[in-house]
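Reagents: none. Just compute today. Proton pump complex quinol oxidase subunit SoxB.
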Amino acid sequence: MSYVWTILDKITMAIIDFVNKAKKIVNPKDTLSLSWLYFLGSVAWLIILGTAAMNLRTYLTYDQNSPAVGPIYYTMLTIHGWSAMLGLVPDAAIAIIIFSIYKSGLSVIHRKAVTAMFWISNLALAFALFGGPDTAWYMYPPLAIEDNSVFQAFRLYHGAMIGAAYLALALNSACGAIATLILVIDAYLTKPKDQKINIFAAYGVAFALVIAITLPALTAAELWYVAAVWFPTMVTVNPLLWVILFWFYGHPVVYYVPFPLFGALYYYIPIYAKRPLFSEKWARWNIFLLAIGSMLIWVHHLQTFPLPVDLRAWITVSTLLLASGSGLTVLNLGLTILTSKGYDYKDPLGLTFLIALIGFIIGGVQALPLPINIINGVVHNTYYVVGHFHLVIWTLILVGFTGVFLDLLKASNPNLNFSEKARKLMVAGLIVWAVPFISVGYLMSIAGYLGLLRRVIAYPSMFTPYMDAMSFLAEIGIPGLVITIATGIGEYLRTSTKVSSLSSPFSFSGTMVKQLGGDKSGRTTKS
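Predicted 3D structure written out:
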């Protein structure tokens, strides 16, 4: 009987510990725990978008589908896109930016405001998704506000509820802009005078400002929809102006996560290369090129529009100019690795950032032909483009995000030191993830080059083997990232049980803070 009571006591203590930690995540009290909140929000959206992706891939490969499956497929496609671009991307970007601020010894002073923005933004997006959207993530007019027997913008929301859904989306984007603006202000307020912040935070803060500048364009576009739905006799949507507003946000958004991760690559790769960054001056000057350029070249998304010749010339030149900034990043990091005495790719963190860099290179090379007018017109609406940006997503974004998350675990528990067995398991997981998904990306691009259109459920039978192979490889690859992240969390929990409660990522007493080099506010004083 005493054995039963012992088990019950352990279960009770575990539940109490979980509830206490959950409370500190829901309402963070310091910069590090605020980063946890956004990281966990990112993971939640990753699960949702991944589930939607595998559902829509099922519809693409099942040969007994009927025409009735079409609406389900397009709803899943939209849930996948919205969860990715309106959920995962802003949450992951903000999580990485907050962590970069922490790693540079800065603090988020207005934590309650940033926490409130998280909850309003994510709950608002969840409300919109529950309506069964059917518009794809870019929400082009006029179909995005239609509600008739031919086309419905939402499967479950009708009439005034469509306006309510777009109002929720406006709250989602506005809160993201406000949160990043607060981060920029707080980084400035807590920066020591006459002292540079580290390269990680320099990129994080710079691109927090880009997010704060560009997200309001999406908010304005969404509010325009709200007015058009609620006051149809007074407000009409001009499709061209709406598209201009959208793409002023829609192009920079693809950099919301990659550019802060550039800062992470500049910060971590020298650590595992065991030498300083080849040129920090290049890296810091590159911020201006990338930040400004990312907001000026959005017109290349309109290549199939009847654009003037001189504007088309600007598209090509400006896009390649921005690509040169990315190329400079690759050159800088490549020289850092090549001139080192040996890169530590056997360390899970070292391997994540190496895969992220290689993935960005192979995904980015595929993008180089896209701004060229003759080529873009052929592949603009094909799987070639899907293959390009998914290669970047699956490597730079998701693997880079994983690397930063693993370091978050270490920062939260200084006693954490991954065991040799865990290191091998995480490395294996990264390889199991990377190889299949890089293969999927290339399969997508080859199929697109051959003429496979994106966003269609009915396609020529010649592409069936490509679709089957994509789905098969995805099934193999998904467990890889799960293994890596789960092993990291398992190691964190294992080491946490061997030390006192001071090792909790959300309990910063004097002893714990002293270990991190900070004060009781949770602000650290060293990188």
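The chain is about 70% helix and 0% strand.
Action item: order primers for follow-up constructs.
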